[in-house]
Every structure is written in structure tokens, then in C-alpha cells.
Amino acid sequence: MRRRTVLAGVAGLSGLTGLAGCALFPVDGWNPEDARTTRSTEAFAPPEASTPYRDSDPADNVYRARAVRVENRTRRERYVTVAVDEGDRMVALRNATVPAGATVSHPDLVAKRGSYTLTVDTEAGATAVREFVVSEGVGDLTLVLGDDGIATRQTARCRPGCPPLSTGGFVAEVLRPETTVRRRGVGRLLVRNVGTETRRVRVRLWSDRERLLDYRYRVPVGLRLVLPIVAVGGRYEVAVSVDDRTLRRPWHVPAESAVEFEVGTGVSAVCDAVSGWSTRTYGPFRLGRLVNEDDVDHHLFVSVHHRGSVALDDHYVLEAGETVDVGFETPALSDVELVARTGDGEDLVATWTHCPPPGELVLVVDEDGRLRAYTDCQKAVDAS
């Protein structure tokens, strides 16, 4: 029987966390910063700014008080002062010397939900004022000291609401939180503010001309929204708007397990971007190996298309248990389609609109004669 799979089995493209340098998303509750040598700075808090800062009503506090980390990427140690204010009131203050290449952690600063003003100063004269958001789904804030200034990083996971960042909108029943539970195969949409001021962002999603999402957010400088909104594979249309500028692109799930946008003065879709606490590096599209895990021979027809042109069109005969090195590479970074078909009629189609898969792609005929695909640094899952 001829079966057509729109790549439900591209495990390397399904949001799995594989080996270092290959994962698209960090493991929940794990932060590489925790593995570094850090210095606690509780002793630097003055008596008038005891921490963590909490509300008298426990219902207005998050379960875990949020921290601020200071990462020094310069070649000299820096003496850094961090102050957190709620309106005109200082609620936390920390001072620390941060060695070159090191990270200092200021734990348990604020537990009360809300938006705070964070001010950071160094003895070298660098200063920055940023918004520090404390809420469920919003993580700790990291300050990055560089030779060209101070940057901030904070991640918020929205489903799709995440006050005080979300300002309302429409969400279809199929995308509601109880439907898009955290699991493998959920497509994620990411929006990161790389500008110099808070941006108001509108995110929309359609499937087969049906409106699924129309939500608005207020995104502070350095903050990245993560929306795990798609749990069903298929072709979607996504639009991200800032002011009067809108970027609308197709989105193929699960081949493209994540689509990422950067906003500032405008909006752009990106590949080489910070994902969680590590950097995903995308190179050209690479098809590395063909693997036959079945105990019988298989004919395999493989083609790669880029913007209507055929970049690869080959026929292979794979003996039982055989692995064939293909070593195919195309410089294309977007709009790539892979089509594979066995002589028994099993076929697989995968499309990457925004970015090629990270790492080298491997095509597998499994022990049941089904086609699967994954990157060489991640494990495949069942294509059914």
C-alpha cells in the first residue's frame, strides 16, 4: 500500500533535546549557567533591601524567586552593581566583582509578580536600564557584559497568554493550553526583541485559511517569547507584525519544529539565533547517509529541490543492513524540500522554509520498511 507521510518522523526537527550543539531547545529545568563556576552574592544585600522581595499575599508571588546573572565576556574583571526597583522603591541591590569570562549569580531576588526596573552599572562606566519581568513562565534574567556594551537575555513561555507580557487576543480551541501540552512534536514559534526599546508585537497563525491565533504581546528589550502552539503536523501560515511592518511566512511542522523571528525597528525570520542558553548554528543543507535497517533490500529514490530547481535526483539500492554515504550538500539556507520514496511505495516529504535542519540529515528505512529522517546528532522517532 502506498503511504504518504509529511514527515512526522523527523526527530531531529521535532523539538527534541539531543547532544550539545544539536538541541533546538534546552531541557526543562536545566540551565548551562548552573554548570559553570558561579559566585553567590547574598552577602552584598544591604539590610534595607532584603531578598527575596515578596508580596504579603502568597497568591501574588511566583513559586521560585527569580535571579539575575551577570556574565562577563570581556577580558578584564568588572565590578558590577545591580539594582532592582518597583516604581520609586528599591527592592534589591547587589554588588560583585565578576572575573573575565566568569558568571556571577544573584539568586532569589524577586518573588512578587510584576515588571521591575533593573539598573546595572560597572566601574568602567557602562550602564544599562532594562525591564525585569517576574511571572510564571518567565525565567531568570542574564546580563551579558561585552566590549560593546551590556545586553540582556530573558525567556518567557506563553500558552499563548503570559501576563503581563500578553495583552490579549484570540486563540482557537485546538491551540488552548490543555491541548498543546508539553511533549515531543510540538511546534514552537519564537519572537526575540533585539532592538533598543520595548516593542508591541502581534502574532497570527492560520491553517487551511482557518484563523487559529491572533495575539498581542509587549516584548521588552532582550526578551524572547516562546510559544509552543502547534501539536499537529501540517502546513501553517504565520505572521509577525511590529508597528506597520508584517512578515508572513509558511511554516511546515514537524520538519520545522521551530520558527524564529527577531524584532527591533522591523521584523525578520532568522536561523543563526540564540535558542535558550546555547547557539544554534545552521550551515548549508546536508544529506549525509542512507541507512537500511530492514532485513531485505530496498530501492530508494531521493530528490532535493530548492526554489523549483532540482539539486539532487538519485536512485539507490540498499542491501539489508547497509549504510551508504551520500555526502550531498547545497548552500541553500531556506526553501528546501526533500522527497524520498522506496520501491514499495513508502514515501516521505519534508520542507524547510526558513532554515535547513541543524547538523547532517540521515534517511532511514526502518525494520518495518517505513521511511524516517533525523539529524546525525539526534535519535529518530516513529514516523507513524
UniProtKB/TrEMBL annotation:
Q: Name one Pfam family in it.
A: Ig_halo
Matching InterPro entries, A to Z? Ig_halo
The Ig-like domain sits at 76-155, 297-375
Q: Transmembrane residues, as ranges?
A: none
Which residue ranges are recorded for the region named Disordered?
A: 37-58
Name of this protein: Ig-like domain-containing protein
